[in-house]
Specification:
three-stranded antiparallel sheet; 3 domains; single chain; DNA polymerase, domain 1; 14 helices; mainly alpha; hpI Integrase, Chain A; 10 strands; globular
Length: 372
C-alpha cells in the first residue's frame, strides 16, 4: 500500500512529498518529489510493477557500499579528467561518502540525498585567516561564508555522475535517485568590475602588500583575463619575456592557450624575474621557499581590498574587469570570449550590454553604406 507524506525541511523550509510503498514480505521503498502529483504517480507505477512481477530490486545494490562505488568510479572515470577537476570531484565524493558512511547503494534514496543537500546548503566556511584590526590591534576572525546554490549543485552533479556509472556501466542499480532531486536556485552570473578609480587604488594597495608579487599577479589578471588558477600555475619555462607571451598548459576547458603580455604587466614580470633570488621554477613561488606555487595568498588579497576600500569584489571579478575594458575599446563578444578562453558565446552574453555602443556603430556603418 502506498502512502504520501508532506515533508518540510527544518533547514530551508522547502516542501517535498515522500512516497512510500509497502508490500507484504517486501522491504518498503520510498522516494521524494517536489509535488504530490509526481509522488502519487511514482507510487502507483511501482505498485503496478510489483503486482505484475516486473519489479526486481537489484541484489547487488544491497551488497555494494557507497564507498566501494566511489572508489571504483574514481579509478575508472576520473583518470581522464584534468588534475584540478579530478581533485575537485574527489573532494566532493569524499563529502558524500561521509554522509553515506556505512550505507549500501540500495540505501542511497532520494530523501537521504535531499537531506544531505540541505545540510550542505546550511554549512559555513571561512576564507583567509584572522587579521589584526588596524586601529585597535585586536584579532578579527576570518569572514564566514555559506555555500552558494551553484556550489551545492556541483556537489549534486558529482554524486549523480557516480550513481549514473553504477546504473549504466556496473549494473548495480535500476535507476539514479538523484533524478528525483531538485537543484538549488543559482545566482545570475556576476558582472561586477572595477571602475578606473577602483583599479588605480587597488593596484596601489597591492604594491604595499606583504607579498611583493601580488601587484604583478593582479596586473596579469586584469590585462589577460586569465583565471586565478591559470596564473598561479605559470612557470618561468612557460613565459617568453622577449615576445611577451605566456603559455597556459592547464585550463578549465582542458586546452592549452597563449596569453599575450603587454604594458605594466610585462614590465612587472621582468622585474619579478630579476628578483627571483630563490631561482624557483614557479612565477608565483611560495615566500617560505617551500616547493610549489603560492596557491593560498587570499589573506594578502583581502587586506589589499580592505586597504583600497573596495567591497563586494572577488578575485574572479578581475576577469569581468578585463571584459569591461575590452568592450569599452570596441571589442565584440566573440573577441571577448576568445580573450577570456570561453569556447562559446553563452558565457560572455552577460557583457552584451557593454558592447551596445560598438554594435550601434556597426549598424550605423552598414546603414550608411547601403543608403538605408
Amino acid at each position: 500500500m502506498a502512502s504520501i507524506q508532506r515533508v518540510v525541511s527544518p533547514l530551508t523550509g522547502e516542501i517535498a512529498y515522500r512516497a512510500q510503498v509497502r508490500r507484504k514480505g517486501r522491504p518498503a521503498e520510498s522516494a521524494s518529489f517536489p509535488n504530490r502529483k509526481e509522488a502519487l504517480a511514482w507510487a502507483q507505477s511501482l505498485e503496478a510493477a510489483i503486482c505484475e512481477g516486473r519489479h526486481f530490486p537489484h541484489a547487488a545494490a544491497k551488497r555494494t557500499s557507497f564507498d566501494a562505488l566511489a572508489s571504483d568510479y574514481v579509478k575508472a572515470k576520473l583518470a581522464d579528467f584534468g588534475e584540478k577537476e579530478r581533485a575537485t570531484r574527489e573532494r566532493q565524493l569524499r563529502w558524500w561518502s561521509q554522509q553515506f558512511a556505512g550505507l549500501s547503494l540500495a540505501e542511497i534514496t532520494a530523501d537521504r540525498i535531499s537531506m544531505a543537500r540541505d545540510k550542505l546548503a546550511a554549512q559555513t566556511f571561512t576564507r583567509g585567516r584572522p587579521q589584526k584590526h588596524p586601529d585597535t590591534g585586536e584579532l578579527v576572525p576570518a569572514k564566514t561564508y555559506k555555500y552558494t546554490g551553484s556550489t551545492v549543485n556541483r556537489y549534486i552533479a558529482a554524486l549523480s555522475h557516480a550513481l549514473s556509472f553504477a546504473v549504466k556501466e556496473r549494473r548495480l542499480m535500476e535507476r539514479n535517485p538523484v533524478s528525483d532531486i531538485s537543484r538549488k536556485k543559482e545566482p545570475r552570473g556576476r558582472t561586477r568590475f572595477l571602475s578606473d578609480e577602483e583599479r588605480t587604488v587597488l593596484l596601489e594597495a597591492c604594491a604595499k602588500a606583504e607579498w611583493p608579487a601580488l601587484q604583478t599577479l593582479v596586473l596579469l589578471a586584469i590585462t589577460t583575463g586569465a583565471r586565478k588558477g591559470e596564473l598561479i600555475a605559470l612557470k618561468w619555462a612557460d613565459i617568453d619575456l622577449k615576445k611577451g607571451r605566456a603559455l597556459v598548459r592547464e585550463t578549465k576547458n582542458d586546452e592549452q592557450r597563449v596569453l599575450p603580455l603587454a604594458g605594466k604587466a610585462l614590465e612587472a614580470l621582468r622585474e619579478l624575474k630579476l628578483q627571483n633570488s630563490a631561482r624557483s621554477e614557479w612565477v608565483f613561488a611560495q615566500p617560505s621557499g617551500h616547493p610549489g606555487p603560492y596557491e593560498y595568498f587570499d589573506a594578502h588579497w583581502y587586506v589589499a581590498l580592505e586597504t583600497a576600500g573596495i567591497g563586494d569584489f572577488h578575485f574572479h571579478d578581475l576577469r569581468h574587469t578585463t571584459a569591461s575594458m575590452l568592450a569599452a575599446q570596441g571589442a565584440s563578444l566573440l573577441e571577448i570570449a576568445d580573450v577570456l578562453g570561453h569556447k562559446t558565446l553563452a558565457m560572455v552574453k552577460r557583457y552584451s550590454h557593454l558592447v551596445v555602443e560598438h554594435k550601434a556603430k556597426v549598424i550605423e556603418k552598414m546603414v550608411a553604406a547601403k543608403g538605408l
